[in-house]
## 1
Amino acid sequence: MFSPSTYRSRREHLKQEVGSGLVLLMGNKQVGMNFPHNWYTFRQDSTFLYYTGLNQPGMTLLIDLDEGTETLYGTDPTIDDIVWTGPVPSLDELAASAGIGQAREASALDTTLKNTPLERVHLLPTYRDEHRISLLKWFGLNPGEISKHHSDSLIRTIVEQRLVKTDEEAKQMDEAAAISADMHLEAMRVVRPGMYEYELMSRVHATALEQNGDIAYPIILTVNGQILHNHYYGNRIGDEDVVLVDAGAQTSMGYAGDLTRTFPAGTAFTPRQRDLYNIVLHSFESAVFRTKPGVLFRDLHYLACEKLVEGLKELKLMQGDPAEAVRAGAHTLFFQAGLGHMMGLDVHDMENLGEDVVGYPGDLQRDTRFGFKSLRLARKLEPGHVVTVEPGLYFIPTLIGLWKEEKKLKEFICYDELEKWTDAGGYRVEDDFIVTGQGYRLLGKPVPKTVEEIETVRREHL
Amino acid sequence: MFSPSTYRSRREHLKQEVGSGLVLLMGNKQVGMNFPHNWYTFRQDSTFLYYTGLNQPGMTLLIDLDEGTETLYGTDPTIDDIVWTGPVPSLDELAASAGIGQAREASALDTTLKNTPLERVHLLPTYRDEHRISLLKWFGLNPGEISKHHSDSLIRTIVEQRLVKTDEEAKQMDEAAAISADMHLEAMRVVRPGMYEYELMSRVHATALEQNGDIAYPIILTVNGQILHNHYYGNRIGDEDVVLVDAGAQTSMGYAGDLTRTFPAGTAFTPRQRDLYNIVLHSFESAVFRTKPGVLFRDLHYLACEKLVEGLKELKLMQGDPAEAVRAGAHTLFFQAGLGHMMGLDVHDMENLGEDVVGYPGDLQRDTRFGFKSLRLARKLEPGHVVTVEPGLYFIPTLIGLWKEEKKLKEFICYDELEKWTDAGGYRVEDDFIVTGQGYRLLGKPVPKTVEEIETVRREHL
């Protein structure tokens, strides 16, 4: 973890901004997979981690803004615990490492909160049912009623603070991206036609673990890149397949990386694969090169979409004016997703606090049309923001069938030609960038990205 | 999954045994790690899996014993789902694959249950907060009150049914144990002094994934084998360390393996390590050779403990009559755990339904003394039971210090000699067995276990 002063100064900022009342930050608990003590790998709540650095389960931080006190609630190890788990730090030691003034047994929190009017408490949105049950116990608050009690001031303060990464955080993001880069290098080197997807996936996952990291999100590794949320790994990889890998590591401190590469299982892309890949790559580079403070990420999204349309026009899959096509949403037949998102302790940073608070502040309005609505981030970029850039082309037979039936946007889509391309699959390229004073910097280290670079890796390792 | 008739006949048995009322079997949902859609790897509830074979999240099976109907509740994929996740089976198709007569949207379940008196419903113990929240929604049942409404008849029926593995289940258990064996072979081959524990752990984990399995429980891999629940992997492995690995795979159908090996990081055990290892191995073999139908597993535990005492006497760490020492609990200074447990779809099979229902049926009473209380399984063995056998020796400095201070059981413990052994670490050997008509059968395949076998592997691979 960082030094106690880092966490103390983060909390000082929070206190000044929120002003009065009680700030309740609930750490995560262990979750049983199939019985109470068979736990998933523990993942701390990122906001709790940001303000305390403490990566142990079952703790709560209560900040009384009016009294000016901070109290860490948790459970001290018993002698039984020490027999079974070895020596572990005491609650006082944990509090001290986070610069927190006092620590108390969790049972004392029950008493305190049961005597506190809910109106005094700043609550965050819940995403774990364990927290919903705690709120029921403390305040008699029904799960369905929690959202009425979210604290907008607390949410906004946290989002604005966590969005801008300090130098020590940027180093963590570099580490996460570098491990993520190794995961992709490993996949690109060891893939062989005839392998099952799960075999290749095991190497990608192990690469994160062997550097004392873990996966930041479920790995996507598939010969069907057009299936966007694909966590099935049962296909056999064919000679002429491309493999799409979307995988990222989290560091032991919890910071995330998020990269995507699409590469051939053999030594070379087929001509069609190369054409599609290069369209995506050109779109990616166009957006990256325009990344700098003051730019609306939404505009980068539009730019990337236009570049996709330009490329698809050359393949005779689209026609008409690219900007008009994008305004009409014609590109969403091939690119249904957003260009990217914020990153930090969460791979979609602070998504649990509200996508729009993070991505659409102030007057920015989310476009609710198909495709557009999937853009998580529209916000004006500032130095210290960390974003992904990840355009793609996805040929989804069901979607193509639906559009074709109603001849949707036929002024832009060449349905006759498209018939030959419905099995063209999916392509995506994704890197992580931090916005600097003048522009941007790639996090981690470069992973082969051009057709030539990728084919060189494949030839050298097959 | 197995054939629909397998699940249908399992449910028929359940219905006959339980008789009347409504049986509510809640499948598991996805759990967000750090925001709602960043999910842990999905793990289905094992009871739901046993009676349906369905491995998809968010489903519930309701069996009306009085009407004789079975209804699967879930959510049909929308066109949006199909765009993002590819083609998935419909709810009707899922029900058919499990031999379930009808399927309905989950919202219909809310209506049904809100109009059902709780007394009619057979409830199982909950271990996920998601289920506690469902029970609150359906019946207004407070989380703290759920245990009063557990259905003893349903619990007992399920336990007795799931305890006895059919031939098709035994094949799954063999597969799980075989993948687990490969995990241990990999660790035993690739360990090198100077490695970090997490580097070796990554290879063990990957071995499960690359065979389309996953880990059945968090891997224990440590140079501090005396720390029984150790999920820290940050130590560097030294030249003269032994590494204790307790790891098992689950198959894609959810059946678990659970093996432990302890082996040197170099090419050979030191003389002291060999002595301790051989004591554990002899204890292991003594218990295994006596495994057969009709034997109380508790008696195997006592036998294994006596063998440990006999070995420790030879090292002058204990004295007196071994049987008396075990009755007095003197062995628990070195072996604080139980000899083994039931296995199946859960690595501790059905632990969520109640350890005592599984391990201490009828008149068997759990001994609540330190050490003894950790024996999960006392039950008389029957053909089809699957058990682990896993004796160990654990030198826990804190515990030794406490006992020494009060000279506890000094008639059996040689505290003066013990002073030289407090840093002796931890040793365990564990395999999985199915009880047969006459005796037992090792599940999976043998993993090197004698000192000679292990040292041969180390020499060949270092």
## 2
Amino acid sequence: MKFWFKNDYSFGAHPKVLDAVVAANMEGNWGYGDDKYTARAKDVIREKCGCPDAMVEFLIGGTQTNVVACSFLLKPWEAAICPHSGHLNGHEVGAFEATGHKILPVEVGADGKITPELIAPLLEVHKDVHLTKPGLVYISNATENGDVYTKAELTRLYAFCRENDLLLFADGARLGCALTSDSNDLTLPEFAKLVDAFYIGGTKNGTMFGEALVITRPELTKDFFRMKKRMGAVMEKGWIQGAMFLALMEDDLYFKMGRHANEMAARLQKGLVDMGWKLWVESPTNQLFFVIPNELKAKLDEICEYEDWCMYDETHTVIRFVTCFNTTEADVDGLLAALR
Amino acid sequence: MKFWFKNDYSFGAHPKVLDAVVAANMEGNWGYGDDKYTARAKDVIREKCGCPDAMVEFLIGGTQTNVVACSFLLKPWEAAICPHSGHLNGHEVGAFEATGHKILPVEVGADGKITPELIAPLLEVHKDVHLTKPGLVYISNATENGDVYTKAELTRLYAFCRENDLLLFADGARLGCALTSDSNDLTLPEFAKLVDAFYIGGTKNGTMFGEALVITRPELTKDFFRMKKRMGAVMEKGWIQGAMFLALMEDDLYFKMGRHANEMAARLQKGLVDMGWKLWVESPTNQLFFVIPNELKAKLDEICEYEDWCMYDETHTVIRFVTCFNTTEADVDGLLAALR
Amino acid sequence: MKFWFKNDYSFGAHPKVLDAVVAANMEGNWGYGDDKYTARAKDVIREKCGCPDAMVEFLIGGTQTNVVACSFLLKPWEAAICPHSGHLNGHEVGAFEATGHKILPVEVGADGKITPELIAPLLEVHKDVHLTKPGLVYISNATENGDVYTKAELTRLYAFCRENDLLLFADGARLGCALTSDSNDLTLPEFAKLVDAFYIGGTKNGTMFGEALVITRPELTKDFFRMKKRMGAVMEKGWIQGAMFLALMEDDLYFKMGRHANEMAARLQKGLVDMGWKLWVESPTNQLFFVIPNELKAKLDEICEYEDWCMYDETHTVIRFVTCFNTTEADVDGLLAALR
Amino acid sequence: MKFWFKNDYSFGAHPKVLDAVVAANMEGNWGYGDDKYTARAKDVIREKCGCPDAMVEFLIGGTQTNVVACSFLLKPWEAAICPHSGHLNGHEVGAFEATGHKILPVEVGADGKITPELIAPLLEVHKDVHLTKPGLVYISNATENGDVYTKAELTRLYAFCRENDLLLFADGARLGCALTSDSNDLTLPEFAKLVDAFYIGGTKNGTMFGEALVITRPELTKDFFRMKKRMGAVMEKGWIQGAMFLALMEDDLYFKMGRHANEMAARLQKGLVDMGWKLWVESPTNQLFFVIPNELKAKLDEICEYEDWCMYDETHTVIRFVTCFNTTEADVDGLLAALR
């Protein structure tokens, strides 16, 4: 098999997570999340987040979680402010608009991060009641390009949102890598206090599927289950989600996996940079972006799975390597050796 | 543990299905259904349905499948005709209306079946362009109350639909039990030819989750994947669905499980009727409905898991027992013994 | 010309209303309702309703007003309870469902009126979070069949709604006739206090178009204008609506027209009943429903415009006569003479 | 009164149009557009457009027409390509997204015009089925900034759309000025052949309200009336729309008004440019955009009604003057005199 650096959703569950699913398989559990695993997993997550009153609900995938959560949090006439490159805007086939909401895209830099300065002019324009009302800011941590928000940045952004009657929602598809990155200075409880809602992404970090949505302010959570069901997002065999997230939370497996993926990415990055490869953006997490000459692609295709990200110029392409919980040092060193 | 007859989604996957998931867990597969399992499972399903040109797509749960499929098949101004008791109408928190479509409910009998005679008056009224346009008929097989459509019934209904420019969609959450019922005279290929679209329900018959949607007429399938993604219904690790459905289809495991559940239900029904219990409706599949005096409920609660279905009268309740692939003769006989 | 009893929207504006439009035509007014007529008309309506804090907004037609108002007042997962025969359910081509909401129809009697007793069982069932949440009760006054709510009935219904966390919305397409009916014992301020929102229907009582939506509780009105604009319901030349409603309110023209239409209807009803015609329902307002033998229809078609309402039995039809502000005694007596 | 150059929707109907409404007011006409005026107006418009098979339907305002038409023409998963500055994107409070569709904005130049070159890269990216499918191109003629499409430009654009399976929709809010502009070389029939659908805007050119939607390809029009009704866009007293459009079409009143407005704008533009005023963009139609020093605004406010368009820089603002059918030479010369 080729070295696999294509993405972080090409392998199934971490063995401990899989074991938990297998163990519960024939027990007999009530459906729709009304089971002991789900109840315990919610408690553990609340505890780890330092949010005893938060609502925790399990959903199935990232697009679904973004769409259900953001459309739940907004009034019909409110829009979501989103980085132009944000997943909600660019990669979900209009799933959010399908719920009737407009996205107000904001051009952001290569780090993919949104700031009060980028939002303020848009708020000014949208005071006009003949325009849609901005109601929520969507960010991701890690961002689409792999960067992370610092405590100072998120503190400023959240304060700005609160002052301006905007909710702050964080897509945490890669939260495990974000909060264990060398660039990160946020604990999970600190992070949870600096957003109104976020999700702990399982799919890209150790589960077969499943995301844990956390709405930290209880006053925002009324009737969420009905909304979730209305969006077709309630699993009949919900205990599977609960069992997986319990396994993820045990011994901090979730964050250990995130840190491991980051370490493998850093090792690969160092190796490639040492070989003279050119970074497209600096990423302190598990996604690496390099600018390569187009003629290198044929060779790369033989050696490894990776992703064509975008055109850089006529003769160069941006490619992405992604590491995950089961990437090994041997994989990294093997790829580096093959490329030398 | 109490005897478990509550529903058919309280146990996980059949062991062979689970094995298939475990075996593929660390292989490395492309995401979003672009993998060898999914490709093979689609081929096998098309073959078993005798529809070489059908579209097969995997979705996650029943509500999602109903909603994505029906809203895909209809124009925005078209409505779905649905039995009043149909899942789409009564049990999905307005998930279908959330896509902008009206449901035109039709009162049906205790068998839950829809007929041309029940639809015709509604079509007459809705010729008026100031009313919504009926575009699709939603049925379930087995129905909500456990009955099945005969070949003659479905042939008449489908002919009527084609004549009246209505699509026919069948919710197959319990298709495995329907097509193996003693009352059934339809093969899978015959069934597939008598509807425009249907799904093979995995969740209630042997998978952890997952339904296989089949649209039998290729001219109706254009761009389905984009619609599926827009509805948040594409799994990143789609090979899990593929692997489960491949295992289901092998050696006809899917229909063997359905037949087994029916046999266990028949055994339980015979035992209870012999004891003098009163049936609410006749069901030839894996759901049984009995009218019991309210004072029996406390005792029943101690012995087994079952479901309170609805009030029958001041002093009686309708309850439901459900069997599934892992119900054993010992379970049935044990429950009967405990109730004697 | 034939005698015209077809409906109450076949003639344009009352001459005084038309004069007001003509007078303002070339003045130059700011657009989007930001003009002196609209401001004054809102004030006058608030005053006449005895609701100094109410929100008043002008919309264009009945379906639009029902849909914009009810979808504004509900959360996305909430449903509207509606008489089976209610306009929102039966006559709007799914316009309300198009905003993503389910309707929970309630079978009502021939008077078209909804009561706490009819709603209570539905609330009981819908406590289940796997079902949609009832959020609002839609009534019309006068009802589809021409009857009106008494003070006692509306007081009970509204109290029941408040206790059960349901909003009460009244479709007032024919409010002018309702509140001037002999069966009515409600003043406009009393009526306004017994609902959360309603509209004063202009289209069927003296304007070219236009309905005045009143939301009586200010805490429910935030951001309404944005919702209205999002629904394509803001007129550029909004002063036309303002000028028409100012004219309607002056000297109680609106209610004078309603009373006149009722008087003409009563005269016609008495005449027909005296001739032995059979009433289908008793209506104290401007719509009359009679059961006629089918063979009478050809003759009736020659004499007058009326509406075929529904089939009564194999040999009889229900027909509707409607009077309006410009129906004269001569029209009524002429029709009666022609029918003798 | 101040000189009025604020916009083209601050005066009511042209006297001949108003007369037509007044004349029909008490005639008695069937509702919902089923009347002789509407029938004739549709015929006349089809004839003037040279499209005997086109569908013509009357709607009420611009936002409504854009939204109803574009959502009717698209499948749910398809998006509309729209100039960033287009009305559909920027000025409709998410009304289009409220129907579930994404907008793909394209950055255009100061002329507001879209070209194949601007669309092509977007089509390339959106071949990916994980992204929304572009289904329609929205343009306006005249554009938001007052420019018009030439025959060569529109011919190229439409050919490109047809090749790429995109529909072309033209917002004709200001079509009267566009097709009578000195920069225009398109006749109405030529224009109609180079788009799939467009509307003849009444509100901004001589009616009280009302737009005539023309879908030129009959195969695209099935069931439009039901969609229109579902969107709350059917007027009960539809003959008013018919009568107004008949009056507009008689003796080419519509285009005479457009040409007049253009001439008044040209006179004003020449006068101001001669006085040294700085144009922001060149506009050959009835909207003029000038860059003025901020300190001029107070004086301008005293003299005339105009519109603040956007900030130009710290010390300058872009303002808009608009002429319409009732702008006189005296108005223009009076404003110029006052500004000297």
## 3
Amino acid sequence: MLDPEQTVLAFVDAWNRMDFDHVHALMAEDIFYHNMPYAPMIGRAAARAFLDSWSVEAVEWTILNIATNGTVVLTERIDRFLRSEGELSIPVMGAFEVENGLITRWRDYFDPGASKKYTPRAEGGGWSRR
Amino acid sequence: MLDPEQTVLAFVDAWNRMDFDHVHALMAEDIFYHNMPYAPMIGRAAARAFLDSWSVEAVEWTILNIATNGTVVLTERIDRFLRSEGELSIPVMGAFEVENGLITRWRDYFDPGASKKYTPRAEGGGWSRR
């Protein structure tokens, strides 16, 4: 079984591979998922419905810093997404609580304005994992 | 000399005591201070001018989670402030980089909308450190 930090690293890796089945397999059935500027969601099905509604062509999350304290894993990241509207680059910090290799709580903190600031897509543009 | 996590705990404690001289003494002279939704500031004097301009009657920061990885300390907090406009309660995550007992880099991630959502002041209201 993965330890809490390994679980979060696997979660980020699954995002970067756009392996969304694996993304959701790493969430506990009753996950509490809170994009802090918005209302929280409860349950893997609700998280999946929300994330599926947010279509992406490419994903690149970069972990700037990660630190773990027991079952709590704190991350500082830049989450990049390529969408039909253009490219997004969102500075974010996320707190994950992990039990038995599954994420039970996930809270992301960011400026919601950053998730609306599209820049034109640059062909090639560093999407190593497109 | 305080280690990185002790330095951040002392910093939060200084905020809660409203000992702003000590708050600023824990910053490196050339601190890079970035409230992520806004432009970054460089230098203790710039940070102090910014923070002094933001008047508060009471402060209560609560650390929900803290985790340290070498010189990097990541925090998840609720920062409460009592101001003339009312009370603010801001969910925030902050990344601190610490060298020789001084904060060299400080990045706070939050929804800037939360710093404008005042609620009426409740007399007494849990301001233990007023």
